[in-house]
Amino acid sequence: MPRFSIIVPSHGVAGRLSLALDSVLAQSYGDFELIPVCDSPGSPAADVAADRAGQDSRVAPVNSPPSAGLSGARNTGLRAATGSYVLFLDGDDTLAPGALAALDARLTETEGPQGVDVLYFEHERTPWWEGEPTNPAAPLLAKTPAGAFSPAQAPQLTGVQLPAWSAAYRRAFLNEHRLTFPEGQFTDLGWGGRVTVAAKRVAVLRSVVVRHLLRRQGSRLNLPGEHHHQLLDQVELVLTAGQGLPPERSQALFEQLFAVVLKTASRPERLPSGHRAFFRRAGKLHRTHRPADFRAPGGSLGVQHRLLASGAYTAFKALRGANRKASGAAERVPRPRMLRTRLRYARDLRRSLDPNLAVYCAYWGRGYACSPAAIEAKARQLAPHIRSVFLVEPDAVDAVPKGVEHAVIGSRKYWEVLARAKYLVNNANFAEGVVKRPGSVHVQTQHGTPLKKMGVDQSTYPVVAAATGSFARLLGRVDRWDYNISSNRHSTQMWERAFPGSYEALEYGYPRNDVYYTATADEVARVRRELGVPEGKTAVLYAPTHRDYQTGFDTGLDLEAFCAAAGEDVVVLLRAHYFYDQGRAKSSGRIIDVTGHRSSEDVCLAADALVTDYSSIMFDYANLDRPIVVYADDWEVYRETRGVYFDLMEAPPGPVARTPEELAQVFRDGSYAGPESTALRAEFRSRFCEFDDGLAAERVVRRVFLGEPPETVPPVIPLAERVPAPAATLVRS
User: Which of 88, 91, 249, 464 could be joined to 10 by an S-S link, Cβ 3.0–4.6 Å?
Assistant: First the structure.
């Protein structure tokens, strides 16, 4: 029998589940079983749990349907538990280093022959992006006796103020009293209150065991909705269980329960309907279960108790009405620069949304490109009733294709269409001053699969964090997203971590990658001619990524020397990161600078092979099923300064070269396209080309613009059945 059973529900937190599980597996104390509770086999969380189970026999995943909720998941974990003590850990929280060793030591110290029913401990609440962690349990636990004690010796410790994951529970005690999590919302309150009523001997550990990550949107229990009526169900459950407690314990339990009730009653915005009914039922519970010698607290809270007990709803409402706060006013103020433009934008925001207007932008206005361009083209085909306007900087106007309407960023038309468009599509973020109007639909397409750390995950990397700026502002922009597009489950989970928000993930593939399955041999040949690739040559696309610790663009490789060493038929297509509008090297000899070419997709179609370091272009290019070579001359420096989500050296898409000589050799001997390279690429494609099949743009248009239900959009074509665009070698033959 293990010492601890650690139960980890995972619904909705697959992106951070690996951190939670790894924090347990990394504990110095190893006598435990880890029970991740997943939605179903094959779900993103189940894949994470299965991976850990394959590495460590102490991991024993179980399944609980999402419809069972948090209480159902925890109860499923309880039924599977075999340990002496049970702990709960939310799937986006972590155990502090050394936590289990500290728990074992404290239990050994306080158990005695009778055992300890509950061991309460401190926890740390950590903000997502900025602010200091807090330890709300510390003041409460500081007032308790030093050793094991009866709950009567610390009546203020009722369990109501502590979450379920802030204690370790003796499993035999839970079984003896048939304690399980009650159904519905506010289940921690019902659980904690009944546990403390039943416990005979408890102890505390005055150190942090769990690090709780505060949710970006705040607690779901604080959001408006009918679920607040379930609070009274839990309160009644605990009050009924607590009948017969000594006066000092019943007084503390009653006061703490109704502190929660009054917090909700005093915020009528939490209850869109039935606020009077909530107040009436709460008052009845107050009168029925109030201890005989109950002493109401002083001040305003005491007045609220008396008004609730007497059923004086009108007086209670008047008392609290003066304290209501207006929210979101600052965010509703538009911020175009010029006064006249601000006034016009404010006026347009008062006009109704245009249900047939869509606005697109890519790379902060650099041109008609990427997934926004692919969606715009497909929308003109499938939803011709929708007017499309692409936003571009002044120097990119000439690159907008004929027939595509555009607006110059900062112009009067720009602010007008942003104010009135129902659909807004971007692969980055719209300007800070753009207002998210009710009824508008923002689609975030992203512009690559994340290898390097993104969003709030950058906060621990000083160089990157300094360039990112305020993470609070970044997440304010994330709050405008309604949909976020993903090309594989890895991306879905990392976006959830990096950009926490309430958007819906669309696992549809990246629309910009559709062309890798729809382009013909003639189109491949045309692009090669446009780029100036000599007939019969092997075109190697060299696409290095941006280094946050470097200033300006540097190829990082002597390309002329590479061509000379790689073979006479090799030419290089140089494409710098989009931060650099032009690469430093110009087309000369066997080097063709394609940095300024509008479409990276065209450049990939023209290339027979790709050489890159850590650029996300490798994930897109893999759709073509053509050779990829990783040139990793500074991998250790890059991963330490930029941060990465996985070890590329352990799972590369092809051969890895560490020096210019090694890079030239894999081309000279042909191993860049050999059997080992093919096998690595196949594994890479199965993981990262999961949803890219040529139909991504159509799925987005049908779901978002045409409002078709998810089950009717075209399903993803299996990887084995997809046919990528032909390579130039096939075109020549």
Answer: 91
How many helical (H) and strand (E) elements, i.e. helices and strands, does the chain have?
A: 28, 21
What's the CA gap between 421 and 212, in Å, rounded?
Answer: 39
Nearest 5°: the CA angle 248, 253, 257 is 150
Contact 643, 460 (CB under 8 A): yes
* CA distances from residue 430 to 20, 278, 359, 426 in whole angstroms, order as listed: 33, 42, 11, 7
Contact present, 391 and 359 (Cβ < 8 Å): yes
Q: Give pLDDT tens digits for 34-72.
A: 999 998 888 889 999 999 999 999 999 999 999 899 999
Looking at residue 537, its amino acid is K
Q: Is there a contact between 421 and 359 (Cβ–Cβ < 8 Å)?
A: yes
pLDDT score of 216: 58
- And the tokens for 661? 């000589």
DSSP classification of residue 644: B
Measuring CA to CA, how many Å separate 724 from each of 130, 370, 511, 671? 45, 18, 15, 22
Q: What is the mean pLDDT of the chain?
A: 88
Render pLDDT for 295-326 as a digit per residue (tens, 0 to 9).
887 777 888 888 888 888 887 777 665 344 33
- For 58-89, give one letter per residue: b (16+ CB within 10 A) or e: bbbbbbbeeebbbbbbbbbbbeebebbbbbbb
Asked whether the beta carbons of 194 and 206 are under 8 A apart, the reply is: no
Determine the average pLDDT of the residues in 234-261.
91
Distance CA 564, CA 730 (A): 25
Q: Enumerate residues 6+ apart whose C-beta is below 8 A from 337.
A: 410
| Angle of helix 412-420 versus helix 339-350 axis, rounded to 10 | 20
Give SS3 for 682.
helix
d(CA 654, CA 670): 12
β-bridge pairing 202-213 and 354-361: unpaired
Q: How far apart are the first and last CA of the chain?
A: 67
pLDDT at 4: 97
- Listed in sequence order, the residues at least 6 apart from 314 whose beta carbon sits closer than 8 Å to its beta carbon are none
Q: Is the dihedral of CA 667, 672, 676, 680 positive or negative?
A: positive
Separation of alpha carbons 172 and 178, rounded Å: 10
**And the tokens for 142?**
């500081």
